Each structure stands twice: as structure tokens, then as C-alpha cells.
Amino acid sequence: MISRRLKRPLSRLLGWGPWSSRLIGPPKAGVMDAPVSDAKAGIVAVRELEGGHAHPPAPVSADWAWIEPELLTELHRTLCPEIKALRIGHFRNVRYFQPTFAVIDARDRILHDFSQGWEDGARGGNYAFEEVRLKKPLRLSGRSLLLDVRTHSQNYFHWLMEALPRVELARAAGWRAEDFDHVLVSGARKPFHRETLAMAGIDAARIVDTGAHPHIECEELVAVSDLRMFAYDATIAALRKFYAAEIAAGAGKAGRRIFVSRADATSRVIVNEDELFAKLEPLGFARVILGSKSVAEQAALFAEAEVVVAPHGAALSNLVFCRRGALVVEIHYPRYTLGLYWQIAQRLGLRYGAVRGRVVAGAESGDPRQANMSVDAAGAAAYVADVLRG
Questions:
Q1: Structural domain count, the chain
Q2: CB neighbours of 357 closer than 8 A, spacing ≥ 6?
Q3: What is the pLDDT of residues 216-264, one digit of tens each?
């Protein structure tokens, strides 16, 4: 094993050689920022996807007047004002290097729009440029679809919002699920992976685990540009299409008020959840734990809901299944604020409110994304009641 301190100068030296990174050394030809058709590079076609634009929330309206100004400012700060349109690419004889999520064309360039492993501290912006050898590639014949996501496909949110929709986006561009001989993704073994892939028409026999095969050369590859952490109209539409039956069934029922519990979680729990729910229950709320439910069951539950109260977390991905006009109140962690679900709520015409939790003893330092919190139960319930009264 070569240390990073030694790898940098050695990879730089190997980068000057006449050989391809398919054999040794890092990619030799730098980064292609905006790929266009180029037969010698293996770029067959690249085009923009309809609905492939993400939208940050608009200026504050009356629906969000309940959010405290400081929290609202923090929510705005987490949103990217300039977001590239989604693109889909069709390539031949290109390679995928999973450790840095790099798509490498036949000219030995990393294709920027279709690669995800960009780091400020890496040479050239991607640690693939610091590799001494990318390992011998696994050659795949036929057509492959890339589903890998840098933000971790093991997480329900990242899988649902960033990986799975690529199947439907490819279909919208002319490829059916059955047109792919291979689907490239790392470690898709959880029940929600199996369920959603089957729903999308992908059987397990076609999955190629990129964790086990980190360097792959594809005869043909179809890839979608980075969907990371944004609410694209196209991805929301894809998920609603997959679970259209559950959405229709839920929308036809009387609205429910649900409080999403993290009682089955090992981190980021509300330590006084029982106290909070005791205040919400008289307002007509039912407590639900989603960990044991299928995606179809979660879709039906959120489609039926008229009000959702939940701590920030992957369970709120299910907002994509909500009926228009439903209300969501998100409980934010005291040292970690993200406006993503606000963005999703706006795209779907949901009403959105937010409150902030409190730091608990022992959680003043460390990773704020894993810390537990407490909630002012009486204050949060009064807030929800005020929002419900409008």
C-alpha cells in the first residue's frame, strides 16, 4: 500500500507517460467540462433532460410566515442558487472508476458532468488524478446503466432521490429498463433497494456491484449527470410515476395527521419524543415508525397524510408522494440545518413550517449530523396548532 504522500509525486510522474490509465497511472488528458459528441472519445450523444432543472424556494410567502427569521436565513443559506440542468449521456468504450465516481472517456479524460467525486483538495479536483494504478478494469459487453451515487446509495434519501430516478430518466430519453444488460451500483442489498429496482423493472441478475468491481470498462454506458441534493422536477415525477397506484389510493382517503418517529434509530433521535407526542396526540396525530415498512407502504401513508410532523431525516424523502396542499412541519437539529425538504415541499405545492430542536447534554460537539436533540414539546405543539389554524 502506497501512502498518499508518495502517491502524489508518483502519479504525477506516471501521468506524463504515453500509456492510458487503463494500464497504469492516472487519467492523462484532464477534465472535459461539458462533453459533446465525439466519436474518438466514445461520446455518442449528450442532451439535456426535460424537467431537469432544480428550483430553490421562492422568497418567503404567507405559508412560511411561521418560520423564525434566523432559521429561515439558515435554510436559504444551504441552497445552491446556480444549478446545472440535468443531462443524459450515451457513451462507448468508456470506463467508470468507482472510488472517485469518475467516468473516463476513450481520450482518457474525466467527464465532469457525469462524474461526482470532486474534492477541493484533490489534484485536478478528483483523486483519480492521484492514483498510481486504477486496477485492471472489468470489461462489460452490451449496454450498462450507471446508478451509483457519491452520497451513498445505502441511505434511503440518496437512493430514492438520486439513484433510482435514473432508470425513469433513461426511459424518458428512449431506453427501457429491459434495454440494459447491466446496472452499475454499489451494495444495493437492502429491502428498499430490491423493492424499488423490481418496481423499476431491474432484476438482481443484472446488477454489477461497483464496490466489488471498482474499475469497469463498458462497451456502452448510459449515465445521467449529478442529481446530488436537489429537487428536480424530473426526479420527483419519476418517483411519483413508479408509485402512482399508491398515490392515487392514498389521495382518495380522508387526510391523516402523522408524526414520524425515529424511535427505532440509533442516532439523531428526539430524546423526549414521548413528551412531544403526548402534546401532538390531542391534535389528532398518530405516531408512525417507517423502518419496517416497504416503500409502497410509505408512499401510500404519505399520500394519505394531510399533515406530517417529522424530524429532519431520510423519511422526509416520502414527501414526494404527498398530495398537493398537505402541510409538513420539519423539526431541524440545533447544529445542522438543511433546506432540502423545504425545496421539495415547494415543488409539490405543500405548505411548509419548521422548528428547531435543542442541544442535549453530551452533544455539544462532534458530528452535528449524528447528534440527538430535545424539543420544547409544548412550544412545538403550540406551533403546529397555530399553523393548522392558518
A1: 2
A2: 270, 311, 331, 332, 333, 334, 373, 374, 375
A3: 999 999 999 988 766 788 889 999 999 999 999 988 887 899 999 998 8
